[in-house]
Structure formats: C-alpha cells, structure tokens
Amino acid sequence: MSTDELCLEEPFRSLWASEDPFSAVEALEGQVFRELEGRRTLRNEIAGRGYFVKIHRGIGWGEIFKNLLSLRLPVLGAQNEWQAIRRLQELGIDSMHAVAFGRRGSNPARQLSFIVTEELTPTVSLEDYCLGWANNPPAIRLKRALIRRVADSVRRMHQGGVNHRDLYLCHFLLHLDPKPTPESFRLSLIDLHRAQLRARTPRRWRDKDLAALYFSVLDIGLTKRDLLCFLAAYFVRPLRLLLREEAPLLASLASEQQRLQTRFARKSAAGEMT
C-alpha cells in the first residue's frame, strides 16, 4: 500500500504542475543553512518572496536503532514538522505557514520528504531582541506582555499535546511590522522539526521544554518577579499553590540547566551549532 503524500499551495502548485515535485524541490537553489548527509535546509526566493525549504532523504537504520535504544522516537522526515504546524494552527498558536509538503516511500530509513514554509519577515528572534536587556532594560509593560504571551503559547501547546524539544528563545520570532507594543504584537513559534505530538504532553516532556526555555533566558537580565510572572501565566494558579505543587520542577531546573550547558558545549566543539 502506498504511503505517499503530497500537498501543494501556490506558487508551488502551478510551478510544479508538469513535473515531479520530489525532483523539483531538489533542484531549488538558494542560501544553504544546513547541509547534512540526510537533510538539507535552504532559503529560496520566488517572485520576490522568501521560502524556507527542508529536504529529508532518510536517516538510515543505524540512526533509527540508535534513537530507539536511547528510548527516543526517531524523526524520520518532514512529516513531523508538517503535523506539528497543523496542530499549532488548530490550537490557535501562531507558527509557520507551510505551502508545500511531500512524503514518498514506505521504507522509514530511506523515506524522501520535504516541507516548504513561507519566510516570516520582518521579524527578529526573541533571543536577539532581548540581547541588551541585561544592561538596557526594556519598558516593563512590553517585557511583561512578552513574558505572558510566551507562557500562554507554551501552556496551550503543552495542553494540546505538543512538546517542542528545542524550546529556546531563538525559536520565537517577534514580528516587527507593525512595531510591537504592550497592547499589540505578533509572536510566532518556529523550528518544529523535533516536536512530538500526543493527545496529552507527559509531565517529563513538559518539564524538559520548560527547562530548555529557562536555560535560554538565563543571561538576558530577567528578575525573580519576571520568572514568577511566567510561572503564574503558564500554570494559571496562585503562586503559593504552584510553588508547592511544582516544587520538583523548580528543583530540577538547575540540574537540567547543567545538562543543557554540557550538551551545547559538546555540539559547539563538534561544529554542530549552525
């Protein structure tokens, strides 16, 4: 039985109408952001509009078994991100807009797949937007509005059965047109390549996401009140109650922070941080 899938929106529906989309996507040219044996990420431009293209060529049985032996589900291709984007849309969480998706082949180790998303511009990652906060604090109302929005998005994502697995500030894009204000701004969650989808997010994976987010904000000058603001917005519970009920999570943040620092240092030394 065929497991092939194909979904094309404009301009790719017209652009690839008379050719094989799997061959056509391989022929796309542009700025390459990531080039691995089984995966390629590039930015392509059509009629003055930017698109990000991710091509997956299968991860091989070795990688599949390595993940399974580590009790992790392997990411086989673009289908994971495609499904995660659609789930976030259902949950009302701003994310990327996928305009093309394809999957071909029944062999999970050699499955071909791709996803094309519209470039979100003009935007800035929250990581870059917050870089100077430690020495030049922003207006308190805008800072607290951003904190509450991040907390609300992450809470709804987890309640909707999605855990990101790379939940860092750099994967939140703040839209710059119109200029963000405390009353009105748009924030998009991106890079869902490794996201996991279930009916409900297990506490273990919820806590890993929250620890990753905490790790990514350590150097931007947030105060204890800012962190409590996030917790109150995420858990929607009185602070006294959540500090008691979520004591294991709060206690684990330090150890998870150390694990992530070690992981980032290892990847940086291996040249994998691109």
UniProtKB/TrEMBL annotation:
Kindly identify the residues recorded as the active site: D166
Which keywords does UniProt give here? ATP-binding, Kinase, Lipopolysaccharide biosynthesis, Nucleotide-binding, Transferase
Top-rank taxon, per record: Bacteria
Any one GO molecular function term: kinase activity
Task: Extract one GO BP annotation from the record.
Answer: lipopolysaccharide core region biosynthetic process
UniProt enzyme class: transferase
The annotated pathway is:
Bacterial outer membrane biogenesis; LPS core biosynthesis
Q: Which InterPro entries match?
A: Kinase-like_dom_sf, Lsacc_core_hep_kinase_RfaP
EC code: 2.7.1.-
Q: What does this protein do?
A: Kinase involved in the biosynthesis of the core oligosaccharide region of lipopolysaccharide (LPS). Catalyzes the phosphorylation of heptose I (HepI), the first heptose added to the Kdo2-lipid A module.
Q: Which family does it belong to?
A: Belongs to the protein kinase superfamily. KdkA/rfaP family.
Instruction: Please state what the protein is called.
Output: Lipopolysaccharide core heptose(I) kinase
What is the native source organism of this protein? Candidatus Accumulibacter phosphatis
